[in-house]
Write a structure and sequence with these properties.
single chain; 26% strand
Length: 157
C-alpha cells in the first residue's frame, strides 16, 4: 500500500458520500441499463449493451479508487498544525518578485487541489518549494513560463 493520503474532514466526508452513492444508486442504474440492453436481443452487435458494460467498468474503477483513497486517508485538522512554517493546510500569502503581484494559496493534498479556488497541491512545483519555509523566505520554482521567485509574506491557518 502506498503513502498516506491527507484529507480535510470535509473532503473525507465528500469522498465517503460519493462512494456510498456509487455503490448503491450508481450500481443499480448501470445494472438496469445492462438488463435493458440485454432485452434487445443479440449481444454481439448491441452497441447499447457495450456502452452499458463500459459504463459499469468505469463505475467499478471509480469505486475501487475511492475505496483505496479512503483506506489510506488520514484526516488532518488545520488547528492541530503549527503556524511557524508552511505545512499542508497552510494559507500562504506570497509576492511574485518579477511582477510584484500578491497571491494567496492554501496547500492541500493532491486529491483536494483546485487551482481556480487557490488550493494548490503540496506535490506541485509551487507547493514543494513552499513546504517547510518561513515568512520572509524567498523560494524559486520552475513553472511553464520559466523560473519564478516568490517571497513568503504571511502564513495562516
Amino acid at each position: 500500500m502506498a503513502d498516506t493520503v491527507y484529507l480535510t474532514e470535509e473532503r473525507f466526508l465528500e469522498l465517503q458520500n460519493e462512494l456510498i452513492e456509487l455503490k448503491t444508486k450508481g450500481r443499480k442504474e448501470v445494472a438496469q441499463k445492462i438488463a435493458e440492453a440485454r432485452s434487445h436481443g443479440d449481444l454481439s452487435e448491441n452497441a447499447e449493451y457495450d456502452a452499458a458494460k463500459h459504463q459499469q467498468e468505469l463505475l467499478e474503477m471509480r469505486i475501487a479508487k475511492l475505496e483505496e483513497t479512503l483506506m489510506k486517508a488520514q484526516v488532518i485538522r488545520p488547528e492541530e498544525l503549527p503556524n511557524d512554517k508552511v505545512y499542508i493546510l497552510s494559507r500562504v500569502k506570497v509576492k511574485n518578485l518579477k511582477t510584484n503581484k500578491i497571491f494567496e494559496y492554501i496547500l492541500v493534498s493532491p486529491e483536494e487541489a483546485d487551482f481556480e479556488r487557490g488550493k494548490i497541491s503540496v506535490t506541485s512545483p509551487i507547493g514543494k518549494s513552499l513546504m517547510g519555509k518561513k515568512v520572509g523566505d524567498v523560494v524559486e520554482f520552475t513553472a511553464p513560463a520559466g523560473k519564478t521567485q516568490l517571497e513568503i509574506l504571511e502564513i495562516n491557518r
